[in-house]
Write a structure and sequence with these properties.
This protein has about 160 residues and is α/β, with parallel strands linked by helices. The chain has a single domain, classed as Rossmann fold. Helix content is about 25%, strand content about 25%. It contains 4 helices and 8 strands; from the N terminus they run E-H-E-H-E-E-H-E-E-E-E-H. The protein has a 6-stranded parallel β-sheet, with helices on one face. Helix 1 packs across helix 4. The longest helix is centred in the N-terminal third of the chain and has 14 residues. The relative contact order is 0.26.
Length: about 160
């Protein structure tokens, strides 16, 4: 499977770009999955629901299934966060996996950047960032795309991964 990342600081436009890229690339007939890294605790389950009660009782994994979808929840229970490679191995085969976050990993990435967020650019210190998607121009040795030019960014990513 091919992988490509979108990184950037908070409020840089990562999630919006990911959403638009998934729509654009799916529209081209390719199958896309995503991985999103969260820096905080999160819960996809609701208190008082059966699956939540299973986890609260101590189950290591709970698989919730219906006619529309299934989800596998794994409790780390004081174990370290698994590396990206272990998570990638859990996904079903697709044409492309887009990864939001994991900026310290070595896979190829595009940095999302918004001037109003007032954060520094990550790219100068990270050679795995192959391009920048921004709302402001940059003088850099890497391609710079308008943050809203989803088609051009998708073209770049697909060319980079050979799709």
């Amino acid at each position: 499977m091919k992988i490509y990342g979108i990184v950037g600081y908070k409020n840089a436009g990562k999630t919006g770009l990911m959403e638009r890229l998934v729509t654009e690339i799916n529209g081209r007939g390719l199958r896309v999955s995503t991985i999103k890294h969260a820096h905080h605790s999160f819960d996809v389950d609701q208190p008082a629901k059966d699956s939540y009660r299973h986890r609260a009782a101590g189950a290591q994994q709970v698989l919730l299934a219906s006619q529309s979808r299934w989800a596998l929840m794994t409790e780390l229970r004081d174990q370290p966060e698994p590396p990206l490679s272990d998570l990638l191995a859990q996904l079903a085969p697709v044409d492309l996996i887009l990864i939001e976050g994991y900026k310290r990993d070595a896979h190829p990435k595009i940095e999302a950047f918004r001037a109003e967020a007032n954060n520094p650019l990550i790219a100068p210190e990270d050679t795995s960032i192959r391009a920048i998607a921004s709302d402001t121009p940059f003088d850099t040795d890497r391609p710079v795309f308008n943050l809203d030019d989803t088609a051009a960014i998708a073209d770049f990513i697909l060319a980079e991964v050979g799709l």
